[in-house]
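mind reviewing this stuff:

——
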Amino acid sequence: MPKASELKRGMVVELAAEPYVVSQIEVRNPSSRGASTLYKIRFNHLKTRQKRDESLKGEDFLKEVDCERRLVQYSYQDGNSYVFMDNESFEQFMIDSSDIEEDLGYISEGLDNIVAVLLEGQLVAIELPAAVNLQIVETAPGIKGATAAARTKPATLSTGLEVQVPEYIENGEVIRVNTDSGKFMSRA
């Protein structure tokens, strides 16, 4: 039974005897002394896709739903659905793009080490690796003599995601991006 402070995106928990997947987590630290940290969490119902917002304290316990987890690779997009393939059995799973909306900017062709969360054989959520490599499609030209600790500039990646990168990074370079924070980590 995980605490609210241990929840991560993609986890499946039980609320009011129904299965919900964690889609967003916002941490709020109250300024008054002795106040506990609050976690504002958006859940999506696994079957009806209905959204539910809850504010929980860090010590609140939630019951985890027993789900199967498999290592998959992103294969291709079929209309509005994304298709993932099991690395061992080569079985394919589809999920609607609206169910993984927050993760779409990190999914590129052939992305590996994705954990598929399956409930009754149906793909309900994915957990991305901690960092992904993506190519820069468009950014301002690099500046000679720019240091790593200097200012940043916006860069558009091959998936359409926009991140802030150091000034010395140029078009066409492949960079590592943290999937939790959406921030530049390093050159790949």
Summary: The first strand starts at residue 12 and ends at 15. The radius of gyration is 19 Å.
